Amino acid sequence: MRNLGNRLEAKLNKPQLVHWMCYKTTSTWFPLWIDLNMFMPIGVDCWIDNIRLVYNRTTRRASNSHGVQVRVISTPWWSIGSCWATPRNETVRGAPYDWRLARMKTQSTSTMLQELVQDMYEQYQEPVYLLGHSMGSSGWKDRYIRGFISLGAPWGGAVKTLRVMASGENDGIPMSSNIKIREEQRMTTTNPWMLPSEEAWSKDHVFISTPTFNYTNRDYERFFKDIDFEDGCLPVLEVWCMYGVGLPTPVTYIYDKGYPNTDPVDFVTPTGTDTVDSFSMSLCKRWGGAAGAAGPRHRVHGGCLTWT
To answer: Measured between alpha carbons, how far is 230 from 199 in angstroms, rounded to an integer?
Structure first.
């Protein structure tokens, strides 16, 4: 559930293919995420086999599909939103990562982020702000980090994650069904990270409603079992919290008897960013009385920032 994540490239040397029309080897890197040509009929099967992760239940680690190399492509920042403009790749810099992988496989990303922070500190001779969008030693932190800015962070999780895991979500990509995309989305180990939190939602709120069962945050184990995917189952800083409102954002998905292999037939949709509801993102308001958490909160409505 990336909406839509930074770019990835791949290089192939595969022992076997899922379809004879797929590439077995490539001499150069090619776009893995995202190239809309990959979502053509047949092409989507090749893409899923290339981007998928293989999960090892024993080591509890995920790896690329056999014969596939994947690298992250860094895109220089030009601006944030429509209100703040900054010189390209200077005072604001991006730190892209492989969004398919959960915390268990992100040590190299943490090291690169640390090096980026230290490089900017040495260049500008002052601590930096970290800005985390959506899902992205004390002594080191005190010297290099001035504060943390959260942009649309799903502090209480995102209900859309359950729909993604159950029946897929193609993010509006044409010619590719939600159920087909589900094959890839279930292999992305970051998705279960985003399950709605018990701290944000009451134990009686129904996230998924079906003719046979209504799923709440007490039913995650059963949820993953029922969809036949059981593998699914900081130091103090000044914090600036920003989040979006104004777009219909499902907090309950209603299915008919075809669940989980059909699309939802109805939704309950308050406001949010289309992916994360405002209730989850605004949990940072609760931090007002906590040490280091007294920074302003902002809502984004119509493109620019407003105080809240």
So the answer is: 23
Give domain 77-308's CATH architecture.
3-Layer(aba) Sandwich (3.40)
Confidence (pLDDT) at 28: 95
User: Exposed, middle or buried, 85 (CB in 10 Å: 0-12/13-18/19+)?
Assistant: exposed
Give domain limits for the chain: 77-308
Confidence of residue 135 (pLDDT cuts 50, 70, 90): low
pLDDT digits (tens, 9 = 90+) for 218-277: 999 899 999 998 877 744 566 677 777 888 888 999 999 999 999 999 998 888 878 888
